[in-house]
Automatic annotation (TrEMBL):
InterPro entries: CBM6, Cellulose-bd_IV, FA58C, Galactose-bd-like_sf. Residues 64-211 form the F5/8 type C domain. This is Carbohydrate-binding protein. SMART domains: CBD_IV. The keyword Signal applies. Residues 1-45 are annotated as: Disordered. It comes from the Bacteria.
């Protein structure tokens, strides 16, 4: 991959996957950049003396994550940190009816651009596919300094027909423009220009953020806010036994989740299970995931179970072990 843009000299970014090819990450759109089993990035890196540590296979994997090892995470660990809202196939349409999918495709280097100079009333409407909760919107125009909006408003709608008063108004120009407002839950949002400009409007990526974790995103075990009877590691827990639990506060479910997926490692035991409980470690059981052995506590597998009922709104979420002294170690979980 090579990227060039405005500037003298133009910036250039190259990928170390040569020849250019799909690295087959778990979910690149949402930043889950660990390799899948068939990824060409596995064992394709170079060893560097004094830098490269122990690796699996014939060489280090290209990228931040080693396939088969626990997935580490970075970022803010403080209460109240904003988290990015999962983009699971958003669609965008320009006010003239043209497709604007490049503005929400999760690829930083693609760009939607208007076909006329900026004018008040021009807009982009984004369908999030399902209700999402968010309180900040970021518009990224990449390196195109000519395409920044001179002013815009943000409106939200649950049905795409009724919009009401804008929740935010922004003026001024910058590479990334933010609109911050009281958290709202809606399926649709509309960004409308409020001022004219001499150049067409350009958008590389639209991102949304909210307080608290998104249930559909990856809830990393080492970032659990509540830990009971078990030690959190750099990228996973130690082995949970009966009564041990990890918990996440204020998890946002939006329109709802009906499937629990957990990445775990277990030696196996007869009646072992992980129970998903809401609002407290002793709260209502939303799902029970039977734990089958994965081949040992250093062999990681993803296991899923359907929830009997869809969970909506916002809840504290707890994963509680039951059935044995050594049920499973947990790397991460998702609720989608």
């Amino acid at each position: 991959m090579e990227i060039s843009g405005p500037g003298d000299p133009a910036p250039v970014v190259r990928s170390n996957l040569l020849p250019p090819t799909d690295p087959r990450y778990t979910d690149a759109r949402n930043g889950e950049l660990w390799p899948r089993a068939d990824s060409p990035a596995i064992d394709a890196g170079e060893r560097v003396d004094g830098v490269t540590g122990e690796v699996r296979g014939d060489g280090p994997d290209q990228g931040a994550y080693e396939y088969g090892e626990p997935v580490w995470s970075s970022g803010c660990r403080l209460a109240g940190c904003e988290t990015r809202v999962r983009n699971d196939g958003w669609k965008a349409t320009a006010s003239g009816g043209a497709d604007a999918s490049a503005a929400v495709d999760g690829v930083q280097t693609t760009q939607w651009k208007g076909d006329a100079p900026q004018a008040a009333g021009q807009s982009l409407t984004v369908d999030l596919g399902a209700a999402k909760t968010f309180g900040r919107l970021a518009i990224d125009a990449g390196l195109d300094a000519t395409g920044h909006p001179y002013g815009f408003s943000v409106s939200v709608s649950r049905d795409g027909d009724h919009w009401g008063t804008p929740v935010a108004r922004v003026s001024g120009r910058s590479f990334t423009q933010d609109a911050v407002f009281e958290q709202r839950t809606a399926r649709y949002l509309r960004i409308g220009l409020t001022r004219p400009g001499e150049n067409p409007w350009a958008v590389n990526e639209i991102r949304l953020y909210a307080d608290g974790p998104d249930a559909a995103a990856t809830l990393q075990a080492e970032r659990a806010e509540v830990v009971r009877g078990v030690e959190p590691g750099e990228a996973a827990t130690s082995v949970l036994g009966t009564g041990d639990a990890i918990g996440f506060r204020g998890v946002r479910f939006g329109a709802g989740a009906d499937t629990l997926t957990v990445r775990l490692a277990s030696g196996g035991c007869g009646d072992c299970a992980l129970r998903l409980r809401l609002d407290s470690p002793e709260g209502p059981v939303a799902a029970t995931l039977p734990v089958r052995g994965t081949g040992g506590t250093d062999e990681w597998r993803e296991r899923s179970v359907r929830l009997p009922r869809t969970v909506t709104g916002s809840h504290d979420v707890y994963l509680v072990a039951t059935g044995g002294h050594r049920v499973a170690a947990v790397d991460w979980l998702t609720l989608r």
